[in-house]
Structures are given as structure tokens and as C-alpha cells.
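TA notes, week 10

Several of you asked for a full example with nothing omitted. So below is the full record: C-alpha cells for the whole chain, then the designed sequence directly under it. When grading your own attempts, check the secondary structure regions first.
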């Protein structure tokens, strides 16, 4: 077996969904593996036929017919899963999803606590998307809820949610969450989620494509930008662990960057230039992340890629080149780039550290 890995080289929003879809459609894959983060991702895919979807909970190979595997490093969100599933079904797709039993599960209360905490921070916001990723991890240290619990039809789910909404919410925000209708709806959603998602191990994923979320500059261990980072390992760390478990040694990495830097959310953006403006129909103004900001591409790009890749061979993929030099592709981004556009422009070479 071989593995291909798609990793964002910057602050996210580089084109990871586009690259994942391209690899699935042109080279094939047995599975797209989500190896970090959760449903806060926003990976845009546009098919040559014009179908467009922004992937959050599902792998970006879905429109190419490739199933999704949610690894133990992925945080499941039944609420956002079904919202996205409805959109995919409206496009005519019925995705197949597998998952590891140790996946943490985000509750509606985690999302509410997350939003309360960001609101309290005011101008000192961390840059959260407001979907409860950090809060799920924090809460799991004292009140754990995993996909295995849902598959086993945990009998005390209602009392567990009551404890989260009362004692735990008071501990985190100073006040409880009083939403009995949400409790009832969430429990139903959990059982439906457990029925829809099938158990699997990484060793059963043949020729996987590992799809990263966020980017190297948002890795939880990046002290330069803390606390404005994500609560996960965004580079090769999780991938190496998963490949070791699956006994995969043939690995190729694709590091993706726009031809300029972006940042959606609070925190410093080196070289930020408010005069720069590029069209982006995915990263619209957001109540918790604000507007998308831009800067010239930084000189440290290749250094951080080589550090993360270590001995793993990699390719550098540059997207949005037409926005820097419009004569390269006059109308690509009027609709969003497709896998066909990459095929025409494919000139990436295999590099080593």
C-alpha cells in the first residue's frame, strides 16, 4: 500500500480540498482519511460538471466517489454531519463514511460554551470557528464521550448531557445551559449518526489519501502564534502514527499553499496588507473569525515544509496563481478551480528534505 498526504503549508484555506479531489479523481484512492481537526474545516471542491461543495465533516474525495474514514484524531459532530449530509444529498451524492471508535464527539453544549468563551474574550478572541473543537477536548478530560459510546448505545447519555449542561457549563462559563429541546434532538441525532457511520480501523484503509485540516502555522505546538492556533497536529505527526499502525511505508506528501498568505480568524498575519483583496466565495465574513486577511507569501514557506516533511518525499502545490497574474488563467476563479484545471497546470516535482 501507499499513502498520499495533503497538508496546508500556512494558516489554512490553501486548497487542500481541491488537491484531495484531484488525486482521488485522477489517480484513484481507496479512502480519504481525515487525520486531524473536525467539522471546522472548509475545503471547497468544484467538479468539472459544476457541482460545488464546501467539505467540513466529510472527505474531499466524496464527489469523486471515494469513501471517508474519520481517524481517532478526528472530532465528530453529529449536528454538523447531518447538515452537511443534506447538502451532499441535494447534489445527488450518498457518501459512505467509516470511523474509529475512539473519535471524540462534540455536543451542542460544547459549541455553546465555545461561543460564550469567544464572546467573553471580545477583542482578545483566539480565532475559533465556534463549533466546539477545543471545548470538546477540554471536556473529554473529565466527561468523555466517544463514537464507541454511541455504537454501544450508552445508557446514561441523557444524564451525561445534563451534567455537561449544568455543572460543567457553570465551571467553564459561570452559568448553565438550559436547552431541553436541544438535549432531546441531540440524543436522536447521536443514534442516527451511530447508524450512518460504520466502524473501521486504519489498517483496513487501502491506498489512503490523508486529508489535513487547517495548516502548519496553526499547529497546536506552534508557540509563535499561540493561543491563536488550532487544537490539533496539522502536519505529518498524526499521519506517521497512522501509517505505522497500518504498516504503510510508501508515503508521498503534497504541501499546498496559495500564491499569497491568508488568515481567517484572530491572530497575527506576518506582512498583512489591507490593500490586498482577492475574491473568495468560501471564506466570507464570519461572526467569530471576521474577514479573510491577506499578505504576500513569506520566505519561510519551504523551511517549515522541509522541517515537517523530514525524510518524507513531498511536492509543493501552489494554487490561486491566476489571482496574482490574471493572464495565467483569466476565468478560473469565477467559478472555483476544478481538478481539470490542476491537470492542465500540473508541473509539481517530487522534492526531498
Amino acid at each position: 500500500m501507499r499513502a498520499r498526504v495533503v497538508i496546508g503549508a500556512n494558516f489554512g484555506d490553501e486548497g487542500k480540498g481541491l488537491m484531495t479531489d484531484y488525486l482521488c479523481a485522477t489517480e484513484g484512492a481507496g479512502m480519504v482519511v481525515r487525520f486531524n481537526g473536525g467539522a471546522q474545516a472548509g475545503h471547497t471542491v468544484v467538479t468539472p460538471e459544476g457541482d460545488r461543495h464546501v467539505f467540513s465533516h466529510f472527505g474531499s474525495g466524496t464527489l469523486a466517489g471515494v469513501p471517508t474514514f474519520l481517524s481517532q484524531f478526528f472530532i465528530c459532530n453529529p449536528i454538523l454531519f447531518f447538515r452537511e449530509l443534506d447538502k451532499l444529498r441535494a447534489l445527488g451524492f450518498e457518501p459512505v463514511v467509516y470511523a474509529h471508535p475512539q473519535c471524540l464527539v462534540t455536543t451542542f453544549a460544547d459549541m455553546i460554551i465555545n461561543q460564550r468563551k469567544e464572546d467573553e474574550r471580545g477583542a482578545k478572541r483566539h480565532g475559533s470557528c465556534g463549533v466546539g473543537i477545543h471545548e470538546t477536548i477540554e471536556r473529554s478530560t473529565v466527561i468523555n464521550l466517544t463514537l464507541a459510546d454511541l455504537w454501544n448505545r450508552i445508557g446514561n447519555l441523557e444524564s451525561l448531557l445534563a451534567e455537561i449542561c449544568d455543572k460543567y457549563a457553570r465551571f467553564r462559563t459561570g452559568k448553565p445551559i438550559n436547552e431541553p429541546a436541544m438535549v432531546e434532538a441531540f440524543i436522536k441525532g447521536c443514534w442516527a449518526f451511530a447508524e450512518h457511520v460504520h466502524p473501521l480501523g486504519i489498517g483496513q484503509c487501502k491506498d489512503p489519501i490523508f486529508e489535513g485540516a487547517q495548516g502548519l502555522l496553526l499547529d497546536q505546538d506552534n508557540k509563535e502564534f499561540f493561543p491563536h492556533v488550532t487544537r490539533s497536529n496539522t502536519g505529518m505527526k498524526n499521519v506517521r502514527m497512522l501509517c505505522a499502525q497500518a504498516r504503510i511505508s510508501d508515503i508521498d506528501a503534497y504541501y499546498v499553499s496559495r500564491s499569497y498568505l491568508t488568515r481567517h480568524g484572530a491572530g497575527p498575519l506576518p506582512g498583512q496588507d489591507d490593500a490586498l483583496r482577492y475574491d473568495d466565495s468560501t471564506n466570507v465574513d464570519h461572526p467569530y473569525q471576521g474577514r479573510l486577511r491577506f499578505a504576500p507569501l513569506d520566505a519561510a514557506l519551504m523551511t517549515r515544509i522541509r522541517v515537517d516533511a523530514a525524510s518524507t518525499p513531498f511536492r509543493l502545490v501552489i494554487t490561486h496563481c491566476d489571482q496574482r497574474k490574471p493572464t495565467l488563467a483569466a476565468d478560473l476563479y469565477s467559478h472555483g478551480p476544478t481538478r481539470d484545471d490542476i491537470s492542465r497546470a500540473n508541473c509539481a516535482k517530487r522534492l526531498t528534505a
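Confidence is low (pLDDT under 50) at residues 326-335. Use that as a sanity check on your answer.
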